[in-house]
Amino acid sequence: PDLSAIINLDDFEQAFAKVGAKKAQAYISGASNDLLTLNANKSFWQKLWFRPRIMRDVASVSTRTRMLGCEVFMPVWICPMGIAKTAGEEGERALGAGAARSGIVHCMSTAASMSVEDILSSAPKTYPFFFQLYVDRQRHKTEAVLAQINQLDQIKALFITADLAVVSKREADERIRTQEITSVYSSQEKSRIDKKGAGLARTTGGFIDPALNWDDISWVRTHTNLPIVIKGVQSAADAWKAMEMGCQGIVISNHGGRALDGAPATILVLLEIRRDCPEVFEKMEVHIDGGVRRGSDVLKAVCLGAHGVGVGRPFQCSVLYGTEGVETAAAILQDELETAMRLCGVTNLEAARGDMSYLNTSELE
Ligand code: FNR
User: Fold this and answer.
1) In this structure, are residues 2 and 16 in contact, taking their beta carbons and an 8 Å threshold?
2) How far is the CA of 316 from the centre of ligand 1 (A)?
3) Where is the FMN hydroxy acid dehydrogenase domain (predicted)?
4) Staple 290 to which of 27, 41, 95, 363, CB 3.0 to 4.6 Å?
């Protein structure tokens, strides 16, 4: 399909489903077991209604904001996703360049298909990035990664992914066999194709340390000065714990339904944190990802108190069209966000952050 025919984020996933390699498609669109959490992430955004205000002079609105010290054009970041080359030749370079041209930040994955330097060089020299860390069973390897990241001024935050203590069962991915392993990081490991199948996620994720625990935050601290963001928070209790540990942020995430199937839709966790420990929003940045497909979803998240929203699969699929695809995906989201703001009577996102008066949550209570 022609890029000009694409008008929303789902179109990117559908385009990729038509022309992408079957294995890549299974890896990207797939999720755990029965896809309960995958489907809930998306459908729960649709159970939250606006309470629009009218006659408020919305002639001029701005989507600009700050997150983790970075000025951004809208409160959206590109999720860390492994082996982006499975989606298109330019891989992570398209995500980096597309993000920079759109004024948003790409959080690069430990399991990228190219080196950190390669990805950074896709954007202007001072353009910010975030780095996502999977902690390796062999801790010295993680220390080496952190030492490398410390040298790179463009990296502004460290997202530690904590929701995938073990790689989950992704059946679509496991059913299609391949020997191909393209992650730069895990290519140091031997592929472990066995009778469980050959899921790309599983064969590239075997190095992740299941022993990771809260005490390790102080170990990470001794190896980085970057703001630490815990990605994969799924309860108010763990949001509280991250705050107590002095982290600078959290991402409410269930890995896009790719970790525990049956984990709650991320928006339910956001509501739980608001209810049980609202202090969290004052002490650190609260981000969310999972099933965000519309600018109106972004506005809902902001009104619930989120500082930023991660978008995953649609951006990965947009790599099919290279940098231009990524830029188009961001432009669509930005335009939808601006329209939703105008129609809801919101001119300034900072002022609207956490303002529940724009929302009706009764379907979720
Ligand atoms: C991911 N995700 C992910 N997360 C992470 O911390 N490190 C990683 O390497 C990956 N890899 C990865 C690959 C692919 C193909 C997908 C789809 C996802 C999870 C990702 O960062 C994010 O949490 C979800 O993708 C968000 O959900 P949506 O927007 O895809 O619904």
Assistant:
1) no
2) 9
3) 1-362
4) 41
